[in-house]
Amino acid sequence: MKITFQHTYNAPREQVWTLLQDEDTLVRTLPGCKRLHLVRDGLYETELGLDVGPIKGLFEGHVEMCEQEEPTRYRLKLSGRGKPGELTADSWVFLEDKDGKTVVTCDADAQVSGLLASVGQRVTGSVARMLLGRFFKNVEAELRRSAS
Amino acid sequence: MASVFGSTLKRREDPRLITGNGQYSEDIQLPGMLYASVLRSPHAHARIVNINTDAAKALEGVVAVYTGKDLEGKIGTVPTAWLPPDSNIQTPPHEVLAVNKVRYVGDGVALVVAENRYVARDAVDLIQVTYAPLPAVAEQEQAIADGAPILHDGVENNVAFHWQAGNATDDVFENAEVIVKQRFRQQRLIPNPMEPRAATAQYNPATGEMTLWATSQNPHIHRFLLSGILGIPENKLRIVSVDVGGGFGAKIACYPDEAMVAYAARDLKRPVKWVEDRRENFLVTSHGRDMVLDVEFAGTKDGDFTAIRVKNIANMGAYLSTAGPGVPTILFGLIVPGAYKIPYAAVDVYGVFTNTTPTDAYRGAGRPEATYLLERMVDLFAAEIGKDPVEVRRRNLIQSHEFPYNTAMGLEYDSGNYEVALDKALAMVGYEELRQKQQELRSQGRHLGIGVTTYVEICGLGPSQVAGAVGFQGGLWESATVRVHPTGKVTVFTGASPHGQGEETTFAQIVSQRLGVPFEDIEVVHGDTNRIAMGWGTYGSRTTPVGGNAIAVAVDKVLEKAKKIAAHMLEVSEEDVRFEDGKYSVEGAPTRSVTIQEVTLQAYLAWNLPQGVEPALEGTAFYDPVNFVYPFGTHICVVEVDEETGDIDLVKYVAVDDCGRVINPMVAEGQVHGGIVQGIGQALWEGAVYDEQAQLLTGTFMDYAMPKARFFKEFETAFTETPAPQNPLGVKGIGETGTIASTPTVVNAVMDALRPFGVKDINMPLTPERVWNAIEKGRQEA
User: Pfam families from the entry (chain B) (predicted)?
Assistant: First the structure.
């Protein structure tokens, strides 16, 4: 399942980049993030408590950020396992400078299995988009916070 | 006495079923009963690295947790019971719980047994399984391609079997005047009986006897197979299936779950119940159809059919289900020439393993798929040579005087009167006027379509000798015992195992008519291996032609003995006694008579029986039919397609079926109605969908479109009666004709409507989106 999401920040690219790479920011911005624990460079163990439609419950898994090409793009991998099934996502995040603003585009390929697939697949795409939306909006709030 | 055979009597099973008094497997309640729940794989293909059951076992109320490793060596594997000959069939083991590898979403990984079903279900979530996912494949053509993931070690290219039959060589096609080629996709269907599967097992440690109440279309076959899996001899294993809420083929197969439940009951010495939930039913109860069909059809410009050749790549799922391999081979291949005189026919069938739910029989089982491709090809051929599809059909139909007719596939069709059924259906629908109306409407931009199918099906499975020859690992005869009690009441024990079709009514009608006792005095017993000697079950429209005739023969044995006693009572010789309406009378002196009830009482009292006659009165028959039976008929559908939306309106549906002599017109019509609904379901709405990772996407009724009553207008049905010549009752099967005929009928009608757009074929289901896209594509190409 391919998901694309785009968000424009009223901030310079370098600032957005730094924020997106920051561990403390991630804890605050990842939807439902209960725990983020560095395993090795770029790889974190995480627990996400989600409650959107069929994606409900505690998901345990990993977040990985790698292949960084500062400040233009990096790769973001996500895997999680919970009662309703498993989900994995492999995505590229692109940062583009546009007149001093920053356009962030996330191209993700997500897979779900188990109940999530057989019951939830029809809405999983929208739910994933919604969660991504929350993430980017949370990042925006962080930006505003750091600006003030 | 008015004839009971042939009259519309209300189904006697219905009052209990519609007032909540049915006895389904789920209704069994036993003291001390435990509940089981199965952990199923979320992956379509993965190695099991580790299973940790500690947390599940620690949950209060959990009695036992079993994994595949726990059961290894203690329980057998699930066998396949149909091995088509000369097909190099591969039967890799199907473990009741996966040991090292899971092969489809739903494959069992662990069984939890607990004090109640809620705890059992909660405990399933506490089992931690570490999987190493493997690449998966859901589609059969991808599965046989080089480089595809291999499901079973040693099964090259995932080919489970390769079966060929018939003869239609290249030169026949090279020399043909007209050739039509087409690829069809028989989409996968999910049977969805109203009652999911259920099993309750009780083990008696004192006697070593195991009783299993289970949802079964064939309890004796399940006893046979489960006896081997569990290591319990048949004389200690009892399978009971009193009321079963529909099967449609999905309750033929022997599944791991029922075996595990029985295993746990014996291991824990407590009764154990398992009830499949609807999501499990979607995932693990056998699916149907799923074939990719490449067809070549040859004929003359005048409209004579000369040859048909089919390549079938059939999706068998992750394991070979009980009767699965018989469906795309024997049940499909042999009926490919249909109701027509086609000199050459051949089929080439590959059965393929994929990471999907195993497939098996689904109402019609092979015959709907064969009839679909044939009836679609006939329409494509008629269009190619510019003739009316009805005219082309009529020209090639086997004529009534040509029976018994030997087909290119080696079958001997018993009887038929195809044109009578065709003419009746044409008259009912008003064919000529419809064609005129179609022209008129077309000029107004409205698109009426008329679809016709003239089908024949093979059913009444079947002669046991043939069953053996085609690799079915069982017999296909049927048993019946007709026991007349001292008061004249009758109990009929049948080895056929009806599960909603109404044979408690129709079998009583057979006995009432033949034995001359009131319908109300007859009880029909089925679905219990301890009460019935042997039986092969209900599928393949065999219950009436095989099970019903077994009863007729058993009644005849009763009558033969009763006649001896009656003659003795009347003090005349047997030759001077005649039997009519339940009364034995002296030839020429009709007032001197005794009733069957009076004879019965004397048979039991045994105070004065003729020499050499044993007391009591009952007859048992083990009836093995000499041939299959071949019901036939014509279905016609009228649709109107909205070119703006692709929506299909079912304007009219006419079905004329001939199942030989009709025992109960209402029950037979009910079977036709249900069959039509299921067949149209395939044509227009239903279809299982897997994604690229072989995850089932259509796992709920939100995603899988089941037909509803409001989708249909009234069906107009009628019967013609051509008595079956090779069985005592003259009957054929009626359970599957609707699904066999209706799917191509509706699709033919839609394609007929779309002719102005140049559309020749659309893959089922014909959703408005697909129809609209085909119309748009046709417009662009025009």
Answer: Ald_Xan_dh_C, MoCoBD_1, MoCoBD_2
Sign of CA dihedral A9, A11, A17, A20: negative
| Eight-state DSSP code of residue B728 | T
User: What is the tally of structural domains in chain A?
Assistant: 1
Domain B477-623 class? alpha beta
Asked if the B14-134+194-246+251-284 domain carries CATH number 3.90.1170.50, the reply is yes
Nearest to B700 among A111, A112, A118 (CB): A118
Report the number of secondary-structure helices (H) and strands (E) in chain A: 4, 7
Q: How many other C-beta atoms can be found within 10 angstroms of the C-beta atom of residue B703? A: 17
CB proximity list for A62: less than 8 A, separation 6 or greater: A39, A43, A44, A45, A46, A77, A78, A79, A80
What SS3 state is found at A64? strand
pLDDT in tens, B297-342: 999 999 999 999 999 999 999 999 999 999 999 999 999 999 999 9
Q: Which two tokens stand for residue B402?
A: 């040509």
CATH C-level class of B365-460+628-781: alpha beta
The whole-angstrom distance between A24's CA and the closest CA on chain B is 30
- Span A50-78, pLDDT tens digits: 877 767 788 899 999 999 999 999 999 99
Contact (CB<8Å) B43/A115: no
Return d(Cα B127, Cα B123) in angstroms, integer. 7
Chain A CB contacts of B696 below 8 Å = 117-118
Query: Cα separations (Å) of A80 from A49, B44, B132?
Result: 11, 17, 14
Sign of CA dihedral A135, A137, A141, A144: positive
- Residue A117 in contact with partner chain B when CB distance is under 8 A: yes
pLDDT of res. B73: 95
| Model pTM score | 0.94
Q: DSSP secondary-structure letter at B325? A: G
Cross-chain Cβ contact B42/A122 below 8 Å: no
Element (DSSP H or E) covering residue B52: strand B46-52
Structural contact between residues B318 and B90, judged by C-beta atoms closer than 8 angstroms: no
Yes or no, beta carbons of B693 and A113 under 8 Å apart = yes
Query: Matching CATH topology for B14-134+194-246+251-284 and B477-623?
Result: no
> Which residue from A141, A130, A19, A117 is spatially nearest to B356, judged by alpha carbons?
A117
Q: Which of chain B's residues have a Cβ under 8 Å away from the Cβ of A110?
A: none
DSSP secondary structure code for residue B154 in this structure = T
Secondary structure (3-state) at B241? coil
Choose the mutation target among B107, B355, B697 for the interface with A, i.e. most A CBs under 10 Å: B697
Residue of A nearest to B122 (CA): A83
Give the three-state DSSP class for B565. helix
Beta bridge partners of B243: B24
Q: Which residue has the tokens 């019971």?
A: B81
pLDDT of residue B1: 53
Mutate to test the interface with B, among A86, A90, A118, A119 (most CBs of B within 10 A): A118
